[in-house]
Specification:
- The protein has 18 helices and 7 strands.
- The chain is α/β, with parallel strands linked by helices and 359 residues long.
- The chain folds into 2 domains: 227 residues, Rossmann fold (3-Layer(aba) Sandwich), CATH 3.40.50.150; 107 residues, no CATH class.
- The protein has a 7-stranded mixed β-sheet.
- β4, α17 and β5 form a beta-alpha-beta unit.
- The longest helix has 17 residues.
- It is globular.
- The model has no long low-confidence stretch (mean pLDDT 94).
Length: 359
């Protein structure tokens, strides 16, 4: 059975987007919606206006479900309802009745027709999360539950790296990554084929394993929802809830809910449909991994022409670092030093970062 959506959880650490874009009150952001975490986390962090776009209607439905959960529920209820915490099916069904009052009729029909995802916990029902869940169980067996949880007790990066190198790094873990990210298996179950447009013959498993040590050690695991969710399928500590589900963040989302407009549209169509200067901040996710070289070059050209003076953008990639077209020389430049600094603090450091700015 085909998954309802590709991603139940956005894989971009919105704290990185927040820092890279230098967000300030009143900024006008165009953002890939994906699973909703970046737009929701950004308005929980700053009073900005966001147009969140996606070509996948199901991803937008998921994003809107998360917003509705913020409006209808208190933080512990929302975390349980969405699947960040374990909960009984009956509880999620009851909570959905409250959440549904904050959805429009089309969205209610969508979710009533896909109650299996609601009952499972919507963040657990994505293609990637379904695929990675079984490897998370294997990772806990291979690494050892006690040794893995030992990372929670190490306060500093040096202590966590020492613990990882002595207790967790092993050939068995590398073998697990080779199994999980074998291109044939990963393409079939973990990601839609278009997401591997530029993967070529590269060893994806080796790349991901090379970042796994940073994933486990660079940021405090108690506050890293990616670390906990990817390895255990749930969160253990409230301080690890996404920013939009924490009490202060959820309160801001309620206050600023009208600051997000959700649209079913491509990023390039969105830019083309607005006058130059409408947006000054751009969250591109890793759409370059899904687009041809020619189409992405055209998108960058459009961004360069439409961005307000002094704009900033953040793009991520795994497979291809698209060059800035020669025609944009002087209109769009990279800040590689900032990108290198940001990836060292990213809670999901499996992407390369490209920070762009206009004069």
């Amino acid at each position: 059975m085909e998954p309802l959506y590709n991603y139940g959880l956005s894989q971009e650490d919105a704290l990185t987007e927040y820092r890279a874009l230098g967000l300030r009150p009143g900024d006008r952001v165009v953002s890939v919606a994906s699973a909703g975490e970046v737009p929701l986390n950004l308005i929980a962090l700053e009073d900005v206006r966001i147009e969140a776009v996606d070509i996948a209607r199901s991803q937008l439905a998921l994003s809107r479900l998360k917003l509705a959960a913020c409006l209808a529920l208190e933080p512990p209820e929302a975390a349980a309802f969405l699947g960040f915490e374990d909960a009984a099916t009956s509880l999620r069904t009851r909570l959905f009745k409250r959440v549904a009052t904050f959805l429009d009729e089309g969205e209610r029909r969508f979710w009533r027709g896909n109650m299996a995802a609601v009952e499972r916990g919507a963040v657990r029902a994505g293609r990637f999360e379904t695929y990675i869940r079984r490897f998370g169980r294997l990772a806990r067996l291979v690494l050892g539950e006690t040794r893995l949880r030992g990372l929670f007790e190490r306060d500093g990066v040096a202590e966590r790296r020492d613990h990882f190198d002595r207790r967790l790094g092993s050939g068995a873990v590398k073998a697990l990554f080779r199994a999980a990210f074998d291109p044939r298996r990963y393409r079939k179950g973990g990601i839609a084929g278009a997401g591997l447009t530029h993967s070529g013959q590269r060893d994806i498993a080796a790349f991901f394993y090379g970042r796994f040590r940073d994933f486990c050690t660079a940021t405090p695991p108690r506050g890293n929802y990616y670390f906990q969710f990817m390895l255990w399928g749930r969160l253990f500590y409230p301080e690890a809830w996404p920013e939009y589900l924490r009490p202060e963040g959820l309160a801001r989302v309620r206050e600023r809910q009208a600051s997000i407009v959700w649209r079913e549209a491509s990023f390039e169509r969105t830019l083309a449909g607005h006058t130059a200067g409408t947006f000054n901040k751009f969250h591109l996710s890793n759409i370059g991994d899904w687009m041809s070289r020619e189409d992405y070059a055209a998108l960058l050209d459009l961004l360069g022409r439409k961005a307000a003076p002094g704009s900033r953008a953040l793009a991520r990639y795994i497979h291809l670092d698209h060059p800035i077209p020669d025609a944009l020389n002087g209109r769009l430049r990279r800040d590689d030093r900032l990108a290198e600094d940001l990836i060292e603090r990213d809670r999901f450091p499996f992407y390369q970062l490209v920070v762009l700015e206009t004069p």
